[in-house]
Specification:
By secondary structure, this protein is of the alpha+beta class. It has two domains: 2-27 and 205-374, Up-down Bundle (Four Helix Bundle (Hemerythrin (Met), subunit A)), CATH 1.20.120; 36-202, Sandwich (Immunoglobulin-like), CATH 2.60.40.1210. The chain is 44% helix and 21% strand. It has nine helices and 15 strands. The chain has helices spanning 2-13, 15-21, 183-186, 205-238, 244-273, 280-299, 311-340, 344-374, 394-401, and strands at 36-38, 41-42, 45-48, 55-61, 66-73, 81-86, 97-103, 109-115, 130-139, 144-152, 159-167, 170-171, 175-176, 189-193, 199-201. The protein has a six-stranded antiparallel sheet, with no helix packed on it. Strand 14 and strand 15 (199-201) form a beta hairpin. Bound molecules: 2-acetamido-2-deoxy-beta-D-glucopyranose (4 copies). One 2-acetamido-2-deoxy-beta-D-glucopyranose binds at residues 104, 106-108. Residues 380-404 are annotated as: Disordered. Residues 175-373 form the Cytochrome b561 domain. It is found in: Membrane. It is a multi-pass membrane protein.
Length: 404
Amino acid sequence: MAYTLNHQAKHLLLLPLSLLIFFSSPCHSQSCNSLTISTTHTFTSCNQLPELSSSLHWTYNSSNSTLTFAFTAPPATSTGWIAWGINPTSTGMIGTQAILSFPHSNGSLIVHTFDISSYYPVVPSPIMFDIWGLSAEFIGHAGTLRMFGNVKLPPEMVELNQVWQVGSSVMNDSIPNKHAFGLQNLRAKGTLNLITGRTSGFGDSRIRMRNIHGVMNTVSWGILVPFGGVIARFFKAFRPADGTWFYVHVSTQLIGYSVGVAGWGTGLKLGSMSKGVKHTTHRNIGIALFSLATLQVLALFLRPKQDHKYRSYWNLYHHGVGYAVILMGIINVFEGLSILKPRKAWNYTYITFITVLAILAFSLEISTWIGARRKPKANTTTEKHYDSTSAGNGQHEEQQSLPA
Ligand SMILES: *[C@@H]1O[C@H](CO)[C@@H](O)[C@H](O)[C@H]1NC(C)=O
Ligand SMILES: *[C@@H]1O[C@H](CO)[C@@H](O)[C@H](O)[C@H]1NC(C)=O
Ligand SMILES: *[C@@H]1O[C@H](CO)[C@@H](O)[C@H](O)[C@H]1NC(C)=O
Ligand SMILES: *[C@@H]1O[C@H](CO)[C@@H](O)[C@H](O)[C@H]1NC(C)=O
């Protein structure tokens, strides 16, 4: 977490530059430039696949329904794996008849078939199609891998569901470890029509849900709630006698909380939709955050009257929990961003917003503090400034809870 924030903070220094360049062009590999990719391999078609910088060269012979292919992709690390497969029953990973390649620790490239029946572990196994001529090679200096093979398909299978993936490590030179769960990884699937040569991606309801979850929670916990906290500081610093701060603060926080409740619901739904995918830190912070925020809303009804002797303790408690909720909310937005991996511009926009807000909050805190230090020397007409909602003897209680 600390690492993520530090890491993000470094990116902040690049902000002006990055806004100019505005990272938006995904890097395209040049692998479909030629249909002839070696002295022995010439294909009739090549499709640049929409994710993970990968491509598929292929030739389909319809008279014996044989697909000859070469799949090209850079693995996630130099000791990682690449995989391509056909899913005859569904559109996702489960059920895919795949081939997978990775460098063995002795330096040679291994190619294995995998009949993927569970998310983890996936172990080498025969597949339901006749497949032969498997081989793999390194291409270029970038550590990109290419796998070759021939597969005999059922004659009626002219549009197939293809699934591809890259991972970062392999256990015991045989079992591929889990791949990342970024947007690109989850979108790495689609159809390939062997007659028209067209490929398409799938809209994934989980991806839509993840985006909705991300937007809702960023707006509520990441924007509205911290903003509502700063509003309270703002009024305290500049309009201490103005009682409207209370209504502005409470309504911002209640709106933030309501959106947050809905966002939290989408998180629960996502958790139940994504069996086998665990984001423990993000989930635990989410649960703690939601519990504290609920407590904070409920505590509003237990607020002692302004002149009650426990009111200063309540204020202390309210501020403590409030800051904790804001901090956890922001941390969890960054956690979420590191899972969702949206375009960098989103990260930069949020970092800018939160930095400006933090600077504002800090200066308001200082000026409230300076104001509070000056007050005791001031005359009675300005004494009201200790607390905006204070009336009469409430001031006395408030003084004890002022940060000094
Ligand atoms: C397709 O396969 C058949 C049967 O093996 C063969 O006779 C024919 O030449 C092949 N067509 C092409 C274009 O390779
Ligand atoms: C189909 O034909 C191609 C091209 O002639 C050949 O390479 C392939 O082995 C054939 N498939 C089968 C299943 O015999
Ligand atoms: C590396 O190990 C694999 C799997 O045990 C084996 O098939 C291959 O021949 C080995 N290569 C070298 C160069 O030893
Ligand atoms: C990996 O290899 C080690 C040593 O050969 C063995 O003890 C261990 O059980 C293997 N792990 C798996 C998951 O196969």
